[in-house]
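Posting for a labmate who doesn't have an account.
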Amino acid sequence: MTTTAYPQDFIRQIDELVALAPVVPVIKIERLEDAVPLARALVAGGLPVLEITLRTAVALDAIKHIVAEVEGARIGAGTVTNVTNLQQAIDAGSEFIFTPGATPELLAGAIAANIPMIPGIQTVSEMMVAMDLGYRRFKFFPAAAAGGTAVLKSIAGPFPDIRFCPTGGISLANANEYLALKNVMCVGGSWVVPDDLIKAGDWAGIEKLAAEAAAL
């Protein structure tokens, strides 16, 4: 593993990003034509920080289009699982990176590529490996399945400078339970981008869901 440290200015950049809204939509785009109107609806509803997951064939092109066409959108790539994905996401215009897990290669790769990354962790041991490189902001995933708020409360004691974006099993109904914790900086969720509304092109409906989430 590289001994190069994660730039501490990236921690400030991440904090500034997540301060823009309490919820980061976790977005799966199946049709490229949905990308721009979907992003515009989310930004209009008050959720400018968007995670476009690399789960579909059009995801990278969707990032390119949103970056070029949606004013006010702050775009990051999610479901980045290897350094090839990482570079593809950067080349597409991603401003930051979310990962579901934290391999040594990814942790070192983001440092080498000079991009802010929020690595996914489930355990304290995983987190400590990343902390040794300077990481201080993490995605707790899958949050509900991994123990939810009880685990995050337990981690807060010995690691007071660590903050999380819990993702997985979070909804409008329970998001405030996470956001009430001092070590939670935001939550990630897909409830604001339901498949049925995307397929229907109901951008007004998505804007309404975004506004509800932004008010948390």
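Reply:
Got it, the structure tokens are right above this. The longest strand covers residues 23-27.
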